[in-house]
Amino acid sequence: MAILTEEMKQFVSEQRLGFIATVCPDNTPNLSPKGTLTVWDNEHLVFADIRSPGTIGNLRLNRSVEVNVVDPIIRKGWRFKGEATILESGPQFEEITKKIYHTDKQEVTRNNIRAVVLIEVARALPLISPTYDRGRTENEVRGEWEGYWEGIRKKRTA
Known about the structure:
This protein has one domain (6-157): Electron Transport, Fmn-binding Protein, Chain A (Pnp Oxidase, Chain A, Roll). The protein has a seven-stranded antiparallel beta sheet with strand order 2-1-5-6-7-4-3, sandwiched between helices. By secondary structure, the protein is an alpha+beta fold. The chain has helices at residues 6-15, 53-61, 91-101, 138-157, and strands at residues 18-23, 29-34, 38-39, 44-49, 64-71, 76-87, 115-128.
């Protein structure tokens, strides 16, 4: 049975940014954004190690990982928990880099990739902002946050 639904896979593909939580050697959390996060198949997410020495070092000691992907406008997303495998070479590494990171749409090139991290998703849960607890609709939340970000853009260009 697939862990990742079509809705989840589309969401991850559209957002293109995930926050990866790992555990440091001193048991403190490490959170790192990954702009290369994408779906590999019905059970796996993947991201490229371009500049992730802390994340990779943590995963070498503890494979546990959580990935949060959130749409900042609608304030909804997904939380994925699982275990990571670091691939630095071999057939699966080559297949992933060829299929995912060797396209004209990506800014990543094979020369930038030190490894890929394949995450076997064991659990997926929705993330929903408490703002919806007040009975707000997605369109209302979207309108509020689009207005907020437009105000920020105007201030920066003024």
